[in-house]
Queue: 2 jobs
Job 1
Amino acid sequence: MQETVFVTGGAGFIGSNFILRQLAQNSSSILNLDKLTYAGNLRNLDAIASDNRYEFVHGDIGDRALVRRLLQDRTPHAVVHFAAESHVDRSIRGPDDFIRTNVDGTFALLEEARAYYENLREQPRQNFRFLHVSTDEVYGSLAPADPPFSERTPYAPNSPYAASKAASDHLVRAYHHTYGLPTLTTNCSNNYGPFQFPEKLIPLMILNARDRKPLPVYGDGQNVRDWLYVEDHCAAIATVLARGRVGETYNIGGWNEKRNLDIVYLICDLVDEIEGRSGAARRELITFVKDRPGHDRRYAMDASKIERELGWRPRETFETGIRKTVLWYLENAAWVKEVTSGSYRQWIETHYSS
Ligand code: NAD
Ligand code: TYD
């Protein structure tokens, strides 16, 4: 029988990249449950919309009756849980949805997965996995000379987003420890690549640079993030799903720490090169703006456990990954136009005007 992976949040940035990759490389079917919030976009999945191994269901992970019915009817061998509110700045302005989806929603999913798992027969029970996709932000902020986060770093989330993800990670851990649910947790650093909603640093800067709009850098621009190309993240998730040890967590990162300002410089230079300059260098668009409240200074991941145990390492270098990403945004004007209409404009106006 065809195996099925139950993906949540598969119309978002990482989830859609994961589904496209999975269907290209793997024979299992995909069931995608997504609420289609402002961050979810079915156009990301146009390429596989008519693939008969793919099914989309519009709904909320917090709708327990729906989740129960889907689990019972589609009998997946795995749940891969991406669905979340994911933008730190939005969590600062309005944390409610972050608690509702990231905490309550994950709880609902875990409860339904547990009931489903407990009623499975021996063989499917042995194969079943619940993979929870999480972030490095649960570990808090590093000082310049600190070693990178390892799986043993204590949790110290600083934003409502990070706190909601930390809470969900703890629930997942408890469901393994208490009920024996075969969970896997991945904590990953900042992703970049195609289909990322342009509220996040890299796509926002690419599009503003393209349009010669101001490039809003928070604070002094010296904050450091560890960037990973999204396809590498998806490959890591597939690896953990296939071979990860049940109950474990795996840190995933790019071994690629960069200061925000250096990222913005690089983007400016690439857009100048690809679009042509005709006028001032795009670096001159950089505008330092008021810092994000509680802005974490530095994230960095020690991704040696996943390499040692499962043999995963990032393949893309930052230089090749960022070039591909800039090209993708410049070449996909229709996608950009669609996601930047309506509520996106409202967010940009409200957030950056103050
Ligand atoms: P995203 O915001 O682009 O997409 C989230 C998706 O979840 C959207 O399609 C949205 O419609 C859906 N969704 C939201 N609430 C839902 C609900 N209640 N029920 C069903 N669907 C719902 O997010 P992303 O960047 O793709 O991140 C995916 C996951 O990876 C998140 O859990 C995030 O915490 C984690 N993560 C992201 C990054 C990153 O750099 N983007 C890094 C590490 C971990
Ligand atoms: P972001 O992409 O929001 O990811 P996260 O906050 O989850 O790391 O931001 C990445 C970094 O870029 C972070 O240090 C905040 C900074 N940033 C800006 O300087 N200007 C911006 O307009 C945005 C969106 C982010």
Note: The domain at 4-192+227-257+294-316 is CATH 3.40.50.720 (Rossmann fold).
Job 2
Amino acid sequence: MFDHIIARYGEIGLKGHNRSEFEKILAANMCRCLAPWPGVKVSRIEGRMLVHLNGTPVEPVRDALERVFGIVSLSPVERVPADLEAIGQAAVRVVNGAELAPGSGHTFKVEAKRADKRFPFPSPDIARRVGAYVLRRLKDWSVDVHQPAVTVFVEVREDGAFVYGTRWPGAGGLPVGSSGRVGLLLSGGIDSPVAGWLAMKRGAEVEAIHFHSYPFTSERALQKVQVLAQILADWGGRVHLHVVHFTDVQTAIRKHCPEALGITVMRRMMFRIAAVIAERRGLLALVTGESLGQVASQTLESLRVINDVIRLPVLRPLIAEDKVDIMRRAREIGTYETSILPYEDCCTLFVPKNPRTRPSLAEAEKAERDLAVEDLVRQAADRTEMQTFHARRGVDAGLNGVS
Ligand code: ATP
Ligand code: MG
């Protein structure tokens, strides 16, 4: 019975003259994710998107749209001619088809909106008349305007009337591509994929940067990161993954720097290399999964000393998050199962026995005195390899990307 889906967007509406730009990006993102169903079309109607199903079932389209950032909520709707008989019949179908919460009674109400002022009845009148129609057809239902089990929404427009009863939450946020491009430092851990997802949710297009230390770290560690990049792509569309061969840098650090400052120097090198890649790719900021105090390298002193080597803004969406909350989010977005696979990361490889948890800038600079910083950074940046992941759609994406 449902032949359309209404997709509502929240914040975009507030963006003044940028609004139509945002709407264009959102519509394009929706069309891209609906590509597996060529019959499905998207059009813009007053502050919302209207998805024309043209015979495609609601469920797979809903699943796809639930991953599109920028959509606040979705409703399956039936479009009928703008007359009370047709609207009444559709309202009966909505009430009959509603999934009731356990224990809730057979109560409903009708909320009506008259967008087409030429329609002969004002909104409260439409609600009353449609309600009466439903009561006549469904004898065991009654009206409860305060706490109904089902609310039937009726919207009378020039091109017909929309009738619906459900509102599913959308992914929220802003459409990917509306906030520019960022470089995500993507490890195989739990945090950084979540940080990348949050950056996407705020409209950023993400290019992932991964530091790989083969043969100290295995091919499987890299495959894990590739799966994570794929899952992020399933959410936000295309994700490029830059794989930085980091072995020479790590070997040089081990050889030339005091052990206690190894992690600090390593992370400064990561930032420097990432900044070069960002410069070359036109990325406006870096994103990390750092969270204040979580580990030794994430004290304020450490963050300051690591941050000191670049001028690019570093976004840390998880800075104030507790680990349990990050883990919950990782499960929700489908990255957790991959993140907990036990393959070692280049960070865990050279962990010193007594790392400096509160390094000073002077110490870090001194520790790098014998390191050929510029050469190492340039060589690593030059040897970077790029892979591209595209969103899997339909059946594949339903697997949540975990393999
Ligand atoms: P994560 O769970 O994201 O790995 P973490 O708690 O293990 O984070 P660290 O290992 O200190 O923390 O790393 C902090 C951040 O540095 C990560 O969130 C990530 O953004 C970045 N990072 C760490 N290792 C790598 C790597 N091998 N490649 C790319 N980025 C990395
Ligand atoms: Mg890590």
Note: The domain at 181-399 is CATH 3.40.50.620 (Rossmann fold).
